[in-house]
Amino acid sequence: MNNQNEMNETDHEDLSLSPVVYSYTRAQAIEDGVLVDISELAKEAGFKFPVAVTCRVFELLNDTYQAGQSFEGRAWDFPAKTL
How many angstroms separate the Cα of 42 from the Cα of each of 7, 16, 39, 62? Predict the structure, then answer.
């Protein structure tokens, strides 16, 4: 007997046959300004895949009001620390 919160293999197969109701691609999110592509900078930090951050994270990276701060420096630190 299955717990209500558990799905068996048959349930999963049934879901894969369900039609997609809505999809939102990475490219659309970048075009809309929801995501900001920082792939070039991330590549320099060692990432092998495209990297995008939310617009809010991008705003934080651009918050360079303190002396000695720059977008490039903060943006470099961000992906480098996630490796």
Answer: 38, 34, 5, 16
| Token reading at 45 | 């930090």
Q: How many domains does the chain have?
A: 1
Between CA 29 and CA 61 the distance in angstroms is 19
Radius of gyration of the chain (CA): 20
What are the per-10-residue average pLDDT scores of the chain (83 residues)?
Answer: 55 70 94 95 86 91 81 77 65
CB neighbourhood size of 60 (10 A): 12
- Which tokens is 32 given? 């809309």
Q: What is the dihedral of CA 28, 32, 35, 40, to 10 degrees?
A: 80
The whole domain housing 40 covers: 24-82
**Cα separation, 72 vs 62, whole angstroms:** 9
Q: Tokens standing for 82?
A: 């996630």
